[in-house]
Each structure stands twice: as C-alpha cells, then as structure tokens.
Design a protein that fits this description.
Order of helices and strands: EEEHEEEEEEEEEE
Radius of gyration: 19 Å
CATH superfamily: Lamin Tail domain
Helix content: under 10%
Structural class: mainly beta
Strand content: 35-45%
Number of helices: 1
CATH topology: Immunoglobulin-like
C-alpha cells in the first residue's frame, strides 16, 4: 500500500491555524492496482490439461477511477515464473482481469500465461505484482489451504 504525506489546515472558532498530518490512501484503503483473488489449486485432478491449467488463475483489480496502463507490468511467483502484461494492456476503472496459467485468447477480462504446467504451488507460494519500472505494487502470499483465497 502506498501512502502520501499531506498537511491540512484546521480552523477553530478563533481562526487559529493548526497543521495536521494525515495519511492518504485510495478510497478502498489499498493501492490503486492490486491482487484480488487467487485460485492456486485448480479444482479436480491436476492432470495438466489446458482446461485444468486455465482453472488456475490470479486476479488483478483497478480500484481507481481512471484507466491504468499495465503494459509491461509483471506478475511472478517465488520460482521466478514471470507473466508480462501485453504491451498496450489497459485496465479500466473498477475492473478486474484474470490471468490464467494455460493458453487462450486474451480479452479485456481474461489474459493467458501460455504455460504448459502449473505455476502456483498448492502448498504455499507468493505472487508479486510489479510496475514496468520494477516497483513492487502488491504481494499475495498463501500456505497450504483450500485452493483459493482473497488477497
């Protein structure tokens, strides 16, 4: 979560000016772009079919009121599997994109990593979202659990 320091003036009845430090965050209390949910264990048997691979995914949400350019942003795991967003990908305000492990046709709401094997470890892993400059924007970690979780 990124915070920005600011100063505001508070006026009393006697018009005394008192500086007050405050922390500003997005209205949702989180970064403008962050992970929303992960399905780290594909339901059913892990047989490696494309259908099963695509049932493993992670969601990225734009919580802001403006379009966010995510071209060249990355999502990676602890084993350094790296997904790079398409060069011109834009995420509209208050929208979510789901990044599937397998192959498919990219749309505004679904992107495909084109991996031939599972990325997310069922017994624990960590997803890292980075901007095109490499700045860390969000992290989602999990242990051995139900197979999905909210980040």
């Amino acid at each position: 979560m990124r915070f920005r320091m600011g100063v505001i003036a508070v006026f009393t009845a006697a018009t005394l000016v008192v500086p007050v430090t405050m922390l500003e965050a997005s209205a949702a209390g989180r970064a403008p772009v962050s992970f929303g949910r992960v399905q780290y264990d594909s339901p059913g048997s892990d047989r490696g079919s494309n259908r099963s691979l695509n049932a493993e995914w992670i969601r990225v949400t734009n919580h802001s009121n403006k379009v966010r350019r995510l071209g060249r942003w990355t999502v990676r795991d602890e084993a350094n599997h790296v997904y790079r967003f398409p060069r011109r990908f834009r995420l509209r305000p208050h929208r979510t994109v789901q990044i599937h492990t397998g192959s498919g046709r990219n749309t505004r709401s679904d992107l495909y990593w084109d991996q031939g094997s599972y990325v997310w470890n069922n017994t624990g892993d960590r997803a890292i979202l980075r901007s095109r400059s490499g700045a860390r924007k969000d992290v989602c970690s999990w242990g051995d659990g139900s197979g999905s979780m909210r980040c």
